[in-house]
Amino acid sequence: MGKALFITGTGTDIGKTYVTGLIVKKLVGAGLRAGYYKAALSGAEVAADGTLLPGDALHVAHAAGLAPEDATVSYIYRDAVSPHLAAQIEKRPMDFDKVEQDYHVAKERTDYLTVEGSGGIICPLRWDNEEHVILDDLVLRLGLSALVVADAGLGTINAAVLTAEHLKIRGIPLVGFIFNNWTGGRMQEDNVTMVETLTGARVLACVEHDAAELPIAADVLAALYQ
Ligand SMILES: Nc1ncnc2c1ncn2[C@@H]1O[C@H](COP(=O)(O)OP(=O)(O)OP(=O)(O)O)[C@@H](O)[C@H]1O
Ligand SMILES: C[C@H](N)[C@H](N)CCCCCC(=O)O
Ligand SMILES: [Mg+2]
């Protein structure tokens, strides 16, 4: 059974998949058996034959050179809305026993499994007459620690600290942050200081736009997986 790490973000489109591609690439480059798993993807592209494409998994597999079977998604929804709503629209609610089973299969195939969330940490996955499940409930069920991807720019102090505080309230261990779309300069350097001071967690790496490599040593990265 391998180790795993959950990647969340301060919100949707913040760069979780992009950064995860660099994370998995770094692990693969160090000769480690790495994989990717996502429970629910919404806003999927539709292939010519009508199949819904697992876009995030395809990106990570391509970026890191993974075999398709090492980058999997349990539920793929067409509409670009929260997974709970996409599931309601398609009348295809998530079954969390299946998610847990798929997660364990993915974890057994690899030594370092990177698990990407949907949206931010408070993303509803199922909301119907039978079950109310938020992403943080699933993270707790799977027993994962979290790494938070945040934008490097203005507004990140609030978003990053709120995410860290929510993880703490829910009892989800926070291993650190990665700042995305880093340009440097006085304000962004101060964002690092303020987020570290207010959360007690480290900003482990800062990723520039179009970066091809994650600026962190592979052994430091691998040590975050539990
Ligand atoms: N550092 C970066 N350099 C270049 N493009 C980036 C970078 N970070 C993010 N992007 C681009 O921004 C868009 C949103 O990023 P991404 O898909 O990684 O977000 P996400 O947090 O995974 O979203 P979701 O909640 O849908 O999973 C994508 O087109 C992605 O390629
Ligand atoms: C469609 C989008 N790209 C993501 N897959 C889902 C984002 C859900 C966000 C929910 C919310 O916080 O309002
Ligand atoms: Mg994504």
TrEMBL record:
Its main location: cytoplasm. GO terms for biological process: biotin biosynthetic process. It is found in: Cytoplasm. ATP binds at residues 13-18, 56, 116-119, 180-181. GO terms for cellular component: cytosol. The active site is at 38. Keywords: ATP-binding, Biotin biosynthesis, Cytoplasm, Ligase, Magnesium, Metal-binding, Nucleotide-binding. Its cofactor is Mg(2+). Its EC number is 6.3.3.3. Substrate binds at residue 42. It catalyses: (7R,8S)-8-amino-7-(carboxyamino)nonanoate + ATP = (4R,5S)-dethiobiotin + ADP + phosphate + H(+); (7R,8S)-7,8-diammoniononanoate + CO2 + ATP = (4R,5S)-dethiobiotin + ADP + phosphate + 3 H(+). NCBIfam families: bioD. Catalyzes a mechanistically unusual reaction, the ATP-dependent insertion of CO2 between the N7 and N8 nitrogen atoms of 7,8-diaminopelargonic acid (DAPA, also called 7,8-diammoniononanoate) to form a ureido ring. Belongs to the dethiobiotin synthetase family. This is ATP-dependent dethiobiotin synthetase BioD. It comes from Selenomonas timonae. The lineage of its organism: Bacteria, Bacillati, Bacillota, Negativicutes, Selenomonadales.
